[in-house]
Amino acid sequence: MLNKNTGMQIRLYSKYPFPNRQDRKLDTFSLEALEAIEKNQDRPYMREDILKGKNVMRIAVVDTMSAQACVNCHNTRVDTPKKDWKLGDVRGVLEVILPIQNIEIANDKMTNFVLVSLLMSVTLLFVFIYYFSTLQKKHAQILEEKEFYLRKYLLSFNENIIVSRANKDGLITYVSDALCNVSGYSKEELLGKYYTILHHPDMDKETLKELSLCIKEEKEWRGEIKSIKKDGGFYWVKAFVEPEYNYHNKLTGFSSIKHNITALKVKDTFFSNMSHELRTPLNAIIGFVNILKNKISDEEQKSYLEYIGSNSIQLISLVSDILDLSKMESGNFRIDAYEFNAQKELETYVHRFDGLLSSKERHFVYEVSPSIKAIFFSDWLRISQIMSNLLSNAIKFTPAKGEIVLEVSYEDSHLLILVKDNGIGMTQEVQERIFKPFEQADGSTTRSYGGTGLGLSIVDHLVKQMDASLSLVSAEGEGSVFSVSLPIEKRMDIDACHEQEDQISESVSLKGHVLVVEDNKTNQILIRLMLEEFGLKVDIANNGLEALEKYDQDKHNLILMDENMPLMNGIESMKKLHQTYPNIEIPIIALTANAMSGDRERFINEGMHDYLSKPIEEQELLKILRKYL
User: Which residue spans traverse the membrane (predicted)?
Assistant: First the structure.
């Protein structure tokens, strides 16, 4: 390319010439420029030379693929000498030839001006090329660093996260190192095998059925899976399974990300067993205390029984708090919503609290709004737990002869609970940490007033779980006021007619024959006494297997079924009964010391008609009996 006015020439040449330029001969400078720029792309190559008898300055700079359009053009041309061009590749040399002396130019000033302008243009071109070359290198360095950290992340992911993939036929196509570590299998032993190789034979059949259905319908699935190790041991995982699709939206298989929860499961099993072992003897103590209170006329002896009963209830409350806190911290705490008669539940609840309050010599004021006379839908067990912990806190920090107030009302779709005392109160600093586990005002608080510091932490957890709000107003020496506002659904109001029907039915003696399945001899005696007091006939079975032998379809009207028993547990026995008698319609009630969060829902889902936790409260038992007999 030649500029006739200035004599400047611009040339492009490359080691990869197009076919129509292959015959062009490169002079010495051009060959030297190609070699120099290949060694150092960042520096231009220049020197004086003589062309056609004239002194010239020849300047050569690198010519790169700086735009994707250029790359696409060069790679798609039919006559291109190279088809794998990439952004940043050196395609050749850009050379500028400037005449040093030109006898054809009459005006030297104009010549100098043009020469300077051209030199500045070339310099700017060089700066431009150098800048973008440096920028490209920085981007490449940043990308390399990102790739380095990504590789580290993926390596860590592979070593710590339990991941697997299976094709649409169920054959394993990928497993992470973490899966191999926890299962004991090598990758070679798992790849190509059907994914159920990792399912434990004891895996819950309903869970397996649900998982299989989701896979068949190409849906996501979340749940807990009991898996088997190569050596026959087991481990538990919380799994998320999702379908994978290709670009054409065709199913290619399923991927699974799992989290090892074996330690949590072992912990839950331990706490569940501990709950059962503690509640079983306490059930007998509280039950016999209540029976003796109805048979003894001596007031002094009755007061002793009140002390035994109230302290046993406190122990039950402590056990429940510890177990529930464990559930909450592990993320396995659940709210079980069901219908309940709020007024009746509150009456039963307050009656149960009377003994504890009288033994502590506190004046108790109970105020309930008429708006509570209704059927509500929520978790009454957790609502009563909130009240129990707030009242226990008030009792603990209110001196003898002090006053404790419980107010319950329903307003704007919210259940409102207020617990007020005129006890020792607390400072602002104490209020800020009182809801943390095991926290109290200071060490002297525990020595002076007792307690573990769990109650208010449990309340705080429950309030958050139930989307409620909790407020506290207190000052040192002026008592405390705790207020809870809980969103709750009202199903129906209860009129006076219903109340009258309830009172009439309570006065009628019950009739029926109950099969009690219970392995503890003391509890057998207690339950028999309670049921016979209601006018019912009773048969006893010592375990689930014996229940199958003693059950008489023509005689029994209801079954009270314990869960943890030797030979055969309650759930297995219930399922065997349904297999033996396909048309069985008898109500089967779970009567168990397993009273942790989620147990009620678990028993109902397994097929039990209802649930009673130990220790058995007479009013709760009566309510169940009236409902099903």
Answer: 113-132
Contact (Cβ atoms closer than 8 angstroms) between residue 212 and residue 226: no
Q: How confident is the model at residue 40 (pLDDT cuts 50, 70, 90)?
A: confident
Token code pair at residue 414: 């919210």
Confirm if 159 and 177 have CB atoms less than 8 A apart.
yes
Q: Which residue has the tokens 């005392």?
A: 421
Q: Give the span between the Cα atoms of 252 and 245, in whole angstroms.
A: 5
Q: In this structure, how many other beta carbons lie within 10 angstroms of the beta carbon of residue 500?
A: 10
Total residue length of the chain: 629
Long-range contacts for 187-190 (Cβ within 8 Å, ≥24 apart)?
189/230, 190/164
**Tens-place pLDDT, residues 527-552:** 999 899 899 999 999 999 999 999 99
Q: How high is the pLDDT of residue 283?
A: 76
CA 54 from centroid of its chain's CA atoms: 83
Residue 612: enclosing H or E segment and its boundaries? strand 610-613
Q: How far apart are CA 48 and CA 390, in angstroms?
A: 97
**What single string gives the DSSP state of each residue in 232-259?**
S-EEEEEEEEEEEE-TTS-EEEEEEEEE
CATH code, 9-137: 3.30.450
Q: How far apart are CA 391 and CA 140, in angstroms?
A: 66
Same fold: 9-137 with 505-628: no
Which two tokens mark 151?
């590789």
pLDDT value of residue 339: 85
The end-to-end CA distance of the chain, in Å, is 108
pLDDT digits (tens, 9 = 90+) for 319-330: 777 777 766 766
Q: Which residues pair with 49 in a beta bridge?
A: 56
Q: How far is the C-alpha of 6 from the C-alpha of 1, rounded, in Å?
A: 12
Please give the Cα distance from 391 to 351 (Å, whole number): 14
CATH of 161-260, one of 3.40.190.10, 3.30.450.20, 3.30.420.40, 3.30.750.24: 3.30.450.20
For residue 357, the model assigns a pLDDT of 64
Q: Which whole number is the average pLDDT over 337-348?
A: 85
Q: Strands 537-541 and 588-592: what pairing? A: unpaired
Question: Which amino acid appears at position 515 of this protein?
Answer: L
Tokens of 376: 């509500």
- Write the CATH number of the domain with boundaries 505-628: 3.40.50.2300
CA atoms 491, 492, 493, 495: torsion sign: negative
Strands 45-51, 54-64: pairing kind:
antiparallel
Helix, strand, coil percentages for the chain (3-state, nearest 5): 45, 25, 30
Torsion of Cα atoms, 342 then 344 then 347 then 348, to 10°: -110
Chain-centre distance for alpha carbon 113: 75
Where are the chain's structural domains? 9-137, 161-260, 334-493, 505-628
Instruction: For Cα atoms 492, 497, 501, give the angle at the middle one, nearest 5 degrees.
Output: 105
pTM listed for this prediction: 0.51
pLDDT for 513: 95
Which parts of 360-422 fold into alpha helices (H)? 380-396
pLDDT tens per residue, range 46-57: 888 888 778 888
pLDDT value at position 359? 57
Q: Average pLDDT for residues 347-358, to the nearest whole number?
A: 70
CATH of domain 334-493: 3.30.565.10
